Amino acid sequence: MRGEGAAVWGLALGQTLIYAGLYYGFAALLPDLLVATGWSKQMLAAGPTLAFLVTAVLTPFTGRLVDRGLGGEMLILLPILGALGLAGAGFAGTPALWLVGWAVVGLAQAGSLYDTCFAFITRRLGEGARIAITRVTLVAGFASTLAFPLGHWLGAQFGGRGGLAALALVVAIGAVPVNLWAVRRLRRLERAGTPRRGAADPGLLTAALRRPLFWLISALFGVSMLSHSMLITYALVIFADRGASATMAVLAASCIGPSQVAGRLILMLNEARVGNRMATLASLGAMALASAAL
Questions:
Q1: pTM recorded for the entire structure
Q2: Could you list the residue ranges that cross the membrane (predicted)?
Q3: CATH, residue 78
Q4: Alpha carbon distance, N-terminus to C-terminus of the chain
């Protein structure tokens, strides 16, 4: 990697702030939202659940936009939309408006998270993309470590509703400008001669869809993300139910980020000895043990 290093670190910061606000913000503020709204956990959780469903439905479409060279535009514009949706959910006076706000967040997530970021980097940097993506994951892995203490403080200062609006502001004034700068810089470097990777052969997807292994891997990703999302969403509530103080619960939830980064570093240092199959089985096993322990 040459001059693109600073831009990659910029995208890493952008992903950290987007994940902290749009992905982890609800979990970090759930106790405060229960107090502020008076709604049940099920009603509140229906919001981010809807967001995930909208993301899942729209991701194939945003993927096509990436293939058409619009990944950078989505990284710039969709976080703004996500911030508006998050703020709208924060000030929603009815469950219906709460769901509408989170549906907008889901639309933003479909084109502003890791998938779009990594595809944009790959198309811009070609063979240098792997190192760049690793850098992004090492930094953005600390998103939860930022979100839970920040959400705890914001909830204490502004309540659950105001806390969501404040996190929306973090995304809007933090992630959007840095993404704008990073996208422009990478595109300037591309025009200056940085190798670019072309769009994937559309026939590859058709061939993959015919293979049972493709659907098995898809199911594994779905189940693992379901487990991760449930544990993250209710982390503070789970620890409080076990008698932990609010500070201890926040500390425990904040450890998820450093643990993710540590796992990635271990894999990086043992790439020659640990293949994808072994790493996948180890990760799935660790998630099962974590759930059982809790």
A1: 0.88
A2: 7-30, 42-62, 74-93, 99-121, 133-151, 163-183, 213-240, 246-267
A3: 1.20.1250.20
A4: 42
